[in-house]
Amino acid sequence: MIARDRINDVLDHPVYDGEGHKIGEAKHVFYDDMTGRPEWVTVKTGWFGSNESFVPIRDASLVEDHVEVPYEKDRVKGAPSVDVDAGGHLSEAEEHRLYEYYGIDWNGVLDDGSPAGETGWAAGTATGMTTGTATGAGTGTGTADADRVGTGTGAGMTGMTDDSAMTRSEEQMHVGVERREAGRARLRKYVVTEEVQRTVPVRHEEVRVEREPITEANRDAALSGPEITEAEHEVTLHEERPVVETETVPVERVRLATEEHVEEETVRGEVRKERIETEGVEDPDEGIPPGR
């Protein structure tokens, strides 16, 4: 059982089941006005909506920074629906239905010193605890006035500081960026064969027959040989042919480089804000947006 002076360690803290699964956040605590003993805690299991699941706190325990209850997560989420804001109390029928759902003997609750009746509540925050300003009524004989105590059980309101101030909170959206892979680029070198055509001049030799008459200038050379004989004279011919050679030479260097470009993107989200209304007193700042 969690003592009343430890309620601030319960509110807005995680609630886990007996198997270590997180159920949600503790938002309200219902306790007995006569004994001051906490009876129920409501668990908010989602971000939106007003429904909260009731779970008995008599067998709960504080473990480090969270609360553990001896009920499975699915069982708590499936508890009978009770409107937390409906008059600030649990009726006898509602409480009986919750005890029956969790398998708790109603007669055992009575024998434990808790008379049947209504159980009061308070909005739960971790800022403080009141001393039980809303008391419930006994079975058919009490009254729900805040300044009178009936014969049954009732509940005080947690979440208010001793100076009666109420804390207003709101969610703020923080937007960051994450770096992730968007694609890949690569360089790949491969070989292609191209046909290259060049024109080069080539030379070759051809034979022609030249005859010259005998003159006084060449007569001596003509008569220097034998008079009648056989002879041969051979001439070697030459020609040029194209020769192709290839040489590998570097022509350029290629690399990949990255550039960063900044673009503007609009991000939308939802944040929740608390608003405080006044009743019975005029608030000169009502309707003025916070921070102005």
Characteristics of this structure?
292 residues, little secondary structure, six-stranded mixed beta sheet, 4 helices, 8 strands, 9% helix
Q: Would you kindly provide a written description of the structure presented here, covering whatever features stand out?
A:
With about 290 residues, the protein is low in regular secondary structure. The chain is built from 4 helices and 8 strands. Strands 4-3-2-1-6-5 form a 6-stranded mixed β-sheet. Strand 1 and strand 2 form a beta hairpin. The longest helix is centred in the N-terminal third of the chain and has 10 residues. About 15% of the residues have low confidence.
The count of β-strands is 8
Shape: rod-shaped
Residue fraction in strands: 5-15%
Q: What is the average per-residue confidence, as pLDDT, rounded to a whole number?
A: 75
Neighbour order of strands in the largest sheet: 4-3-2-1-6-5
In whole angstroms, the N-to-C terminal distance is 45 Å
- Series of H and E elements: EEEEEEHEHHEH
